[in-house]
Design goal:
single chain, alpha+beta, seven-stranded mixed barrel, four-stranded antiparallel β-sheet, 6 helices, 28% helix
């Protein structure tokens, strides 16, 4: 994997991880390396970096363009070949693992039966499959608190809706192809809704997530408990 940098704006550059074929691979290993690199950059060059915004296989890096031109900035932040070793020596693992309770009852999962039909599985099998992985938080985006999680098991992957909903209920669990997420607030959305969570912890890129099924009665009781503090 090699690093490629390009102009993104008058005060920002885009750093990408590129494989031997010249592509930016979408994988958990690549994404974990990317977030480690973002941490290393902030640690080593906080004096000239304003902000880093990691995504799947790239980092948008804002810098102080008033005091440094792009060529100088790129030369300065170019990671050495042993940056990963330096990073391991100077940082600790900041990942968190979260267990999130989900109600998969069709009362709060309007697309679950259709996802099962698309997969050629029963509803129960889809629910079991969705709970199996420990999901990786690739990135945050779309809306505040919306975390892109992967990878959804191949057996239950389902494309986005042809016509997005105007309103998706807050705390809805959804899947789209290899990704899954929880809508943190009511918003438009085109993903397949397969459940709802009791509450959503604050997630950050690199965190791990496990989904734990609960029945509808438990869901209603826990929701009431949360709403009353």
């Amino acid at each position: 994997m090699r690093i490629q940098m390009s102009t993104a704006a008058e005060n920002a550059v885009m750093l990408s991880l590129i494989d031997e074929q010249g592509n930016s691979p979408l994988s958990i290993a690549c994404n974990e390396q990317l977030h480690a690199l973002a941490d290393w950059l902030l640690d080593q060059h906080h004096d000239c970096i304003v902000e880093v915004v990691p995504s799947y296989a790239s980092i948008l890096i804002y810098y102080d363009a008033m005091n440094m031109d792009e060529a100088t900035f790129i030369a300065r932040i170019q990671p050495p070949s042993d940056w990963q070793k330096q990073h391991r020596q100077t940082t600790t693992n900041s990942e968190s693992e979260h267990q999130i309770q989900v109600c998969y009852d069709t009362v709060v999962a309007p697309d679950l039966e259709r996802v099962a039909q698309h997969a050629g599985l029963t509803v129960a099998e889809v629910i079991t499959q969705h709970q199996q992985p420990t999901y990786h938080v690739y990135a945050l985006g779309f809306a505040p608190g919306f975390a892109y999680l992967g990878d959804v098991p191949a057996a239950i992957r389902c494309p986005r809706l042809e016509t997005p909903r105007q309103k998706v209920p807050a705390l809805s669990v959804a899947i789209a192809n290899q990704q899954t997420s929880v809508y943190p607030m009511e918003s438009p959305g085109g993903w397949n809704l397969i459940g709802q969570v009791v509450e959503l912890p604050q997630l950050k890129a690199g965190d791990k997530v496990r989904f734990i099924a609960i029945d509808l009665d438990t869901f209603k009781r826990r929701r009431q408990e949360v709403s009353h503090g």
